[in-house]
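The instructor's notes for this session suggest beginning with a concrete chain rather than abstract definitions. Hand out the sequence below and ask the class to guess, before any prediction is shown, which regions might be ordered.
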Amino acid sequence: MLINGYHLQVYVLVACIMPRIIISRHLLFNHYQLKSIGKCYNNEVAAFYREKLCVRLNPHKQVRLACLFLDQNYDTPITIEDLSRKVALSPYYLIRAFRHVYKQTPHQYLVGQRIAKAKELLRNSDLSITEICAAVGFESLGSFSTLFRKVAGISPNAYRISSQPTLPPAYIPYCVCLLHDIEDQPDR
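After discussion, reveal the predicted structure:
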């Protein structure tokens, strides 16, 4: 039997594999509708169709994929619509599931990743703050500075200054002080 030009057997097999709603080849079926049409064939055939025709991802796995995508692409502009398309979830469900797993929204996670990378660049590079702002994916220096101050508690420039290693004053032997007329200062 054919439905919209596709063999019904395929959909019956897919229905046995996916218990809720089946979306395959642009057709939407409820499991119980398909189950009433016919029975599944043996497990080998069902396994074949499960691998070839449908991919049922666990929502937690999809949220982890979203997190991985954010980690890899933190420096590009990402909207919730782009992210939800990548992981095949609706935007609102993705936000709810992401918040459930990571205790923050995807946007909060992305900002945190960008700020963490900015802190690393401020500590370890000589790039200007404007260049760091662009390198970590912020479009505006003002929004970068505001968010950085909100997360870190200080401005990006103050963070750079405070993160520079300060060397303790070098010890000068007393004989050298006498030789060069340097006042002997006790250690503090």
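Then share the key points. The beta strands are 2-3, 6-7, 21-24, 27-30. The radius of gyration is 29 Å.
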